[in-house]
User: What shape does this take?
Amino acid sequence: MRKIHVIDSHTEGEPTRVVVDGLPDLGPGDAAERLRLFREKHDDLRSAVVNEPRGFDAMVGALLLEPAAPDAVAQMLFFNNVSTLRMCGHGTIGVVATLSYLGRLDPGRHRLESPEGDVWATLHDDASVSIDNVFSYRHRAGVEVDTEHHGIVPGDIAWGGNWFFLVDARGLALDLDLRHVQDLTELAWDVRRSLSRAGLTGADGGEIDHVELCGPPAHGGDGKNFVLCPGGEYDRSPCGTGTSAKMACLAADGKLGDGDVWRQESILGTIFEGSVRLTERDGIAGVAPTVRGRAWITAESTLLLDPGDPFAHGIRR
Ligand code: PYC
Assistant: This one.
């Protein structure tokens, strides 16, 4: 039987399963190359770790690998119920909490490698974690998407480590409330399908696979969101890359300046505290975002993959 050692946590409600041992060697490449290899050659193991019957659709997985840089604490590759992820904010906070649980990291500032470049994380004395996420920016503002069931839905296309379509939910008939998760999911999925049908992509041609509905705060923050993830589940946390994309849009509109704080609520009411430094890359104005939140360790276990089990590699869609 193959054995895979994992540590589970949740970051402000959203689960992360960190694989610490038991996956194949992904060679000497950098994080982007290893992610490609994992996606192309080991998709069955991705599914085994996060999909039912061991996981469930909202679970995000992370591989913890040896870093290339000697001063980095780890390299991390993220994946979900359908594929790999380019970056993951709540997952990075979960990785830092896991490294702390393993005794591999003390409070302080640490370098982590991701396929989208280095991410610096600070483990604070109160066990919360700040991550300096990747450069984030708004690619297009006020894009109108002609949806199948919800008419024209305007929104912004922004990068926060993944591609997002951000919609002002005040124009929608639905409140951002947990009671409406089913309807919010259907609406966001309609938007996602329509973006794809219209051939709308991120600046690099990347698929816009996250839809973020943004509404007024309800729990003392500055705004609340509902984020639909690529595999059809919603993010229980305020979404680290989604918070970064949101802050990039606010900055582009002149509503968030250097050092200003943005408290992003999730659909559960949990909060990421974000802030930005205005910057630019290759002539594109954007932000260097910081996102702070807390993760809790929930389990440490060994997954067993019995070759005779018809669902040893998960129930795949
Ligand atoms: O926190 O960036 C995030 C994230 C992406 C998908 C789920 N969570």
About this structure: The longest strand covers residues 284-305. The two ends are 24 Å apart (CA to CA).
